[in-house]
């Protein structure tokens, strides 16, 4: 279909062809087009403000706001010794449930959380199943990754978690950073090669008293309270080495973890309080 648009009287451009450089008519039309576009945008904004009765703003996170975001470092230490054979499957399922729950809680409460997961028997299995990974980049673990069997190198496992956390550079206000090490076991120490009761207690107390780290101890088939106290760990939970009890202990942990941080209380005290309330 032929183009019936009259040519520009100054430069001869027709239809959608651009005007020649220096054409005064083309310059004027270009300015009018830009002005019309800006006017349409302004009208749209006015309509939105009128409709929702609120200004249009762009949310910008300032450096000071980002610096105030709570950051959590969590280590889960799972006993893989032979006596835990009855709950191996549950242990893996519980770890994966923790991963999912922490992801959700971190997102909801705008907290940055990094997760480390160890397993141990007569030695600490390195590298860890998950090594200080941002929670939203963490994948589920599988039973094939969970090495199991043997004795209980409990001291070395907790000591390894402390050592790894000590290496993490912290460039924030200490009040905005938390470290939590949680150990799940059903047996007494009988295989550690590097740490002893005294050395482990000294490490725990140093981090707990000076840097306000938190430690939790879940014990089955042992006196969890007495055992934890010997290591300097004040918060302990006793559970039976059965599927239901094991699952319940972990559910309590996941429901309390980041909620405590959001409220400004300690994770350990919140979990212990929940256990008391649930009987």
Distance between the termini: 85 Å
Mean pLDDT level: 77
The helix count comes to 8
The helix content is 40-55%
Strand order of the largest sheet: 3-2-1-4-5-6
- What is the ordering of alpha helices and beta strands? HHEHEEHEHEHEHH
Strand content: 15-25%
Q: How many beta-strand runs?
A: 6
As residue ranges, the low-confidence spans are 51-66, 275-279
Helix and strand composition category: alpha/beta
Radius of gyration: 30 Å
The gross shape turns out to be elongated
The biggest sheet, with number of strands, parallel, antiparallel or mixed sense and barrel status, is:
6 strands, mixed
Written overview of the protein:
This protein is an alpha/beta fold. It is built from eight helices and six strands, in the order ααβαββαβαβαβαα. The chain has a six-stranded mixed sheet, sandwiched between helices. Strand 4, helix 5 and strand 5 form a beta-alpha-beta unit. The longest helix has 29 residues, at 24-52. The chain is elongated, with a radius of gyration of 30 Å. Mean pLDDT is 77; it is low at 51-66 and 275-279.
In short:
Helices cover 44% and strands 15% of the residues. With 279 residues, the chain is of the alpha/beta class. It has a 6-stranded mixed sheet with strand order 3-2-1-4-5-6, sandwiched between helices.
Structural features:
single chain; 279 residues; alpha/beta; six-stranded mixed β-sheet; 8 helices; 44% helix; elongated
């Amino acid at each position: 279909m032929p183009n019936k648009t009259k040519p520009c009287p100054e430069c001869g451009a027709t239809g959608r062809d651009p005007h020649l450089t220096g054409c005064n008519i083309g310059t004027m039309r270009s300015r009018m087009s830009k002005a019309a576009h800006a006017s349409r945008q302004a009208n749209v904004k006015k309509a939105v403000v009128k409709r929702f009765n609120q200004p249009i703003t762009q949310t910008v996170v300032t450096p000071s706001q980002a610096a105030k975001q709570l950051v959590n470092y969590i280590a889960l230490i799972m006993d893989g010794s032979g006596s835990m054979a009855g709950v191996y499957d549950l242990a893996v399922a519980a770890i994966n449930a923790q991963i999912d729950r922490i992801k959700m809680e971190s997102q909801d409460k705008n907290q940055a959380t990094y997760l480390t997961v160890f397993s141990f028997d007569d030695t600490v299995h390195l590298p860890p199943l998950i090594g200080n990974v941002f929670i939203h980049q963490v994948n589920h673990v599988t039973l094939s990754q969970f090495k199991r069997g043997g004795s209980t190198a409990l001291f070395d496992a907790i000591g390894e978690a402390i050592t790894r956390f000590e290496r993490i550079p912290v460039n924030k206000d200490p009040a905005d950073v938390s470290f939590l090490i949680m150990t799940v076991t059903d047996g007494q120490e009988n295989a550690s090669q590097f740490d002893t009761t005294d050395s482990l207690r000294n490490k725990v107390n140093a981090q707990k008293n000076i840097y306000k780290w938190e430690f939790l101890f879940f014990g089955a088939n042992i006196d969890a309270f007495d055992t934890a106290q010997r290591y300097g760990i004040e918060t302990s939970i006793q559970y039976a080495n059965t599927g239901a009890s094991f699952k319940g202990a972990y559910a309590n942990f996941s429901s309390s973890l980041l909620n405590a941080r959001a409220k400004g209380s300690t994770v350990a005290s919140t979990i212990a309080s929940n256990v008391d309330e649930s009987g």
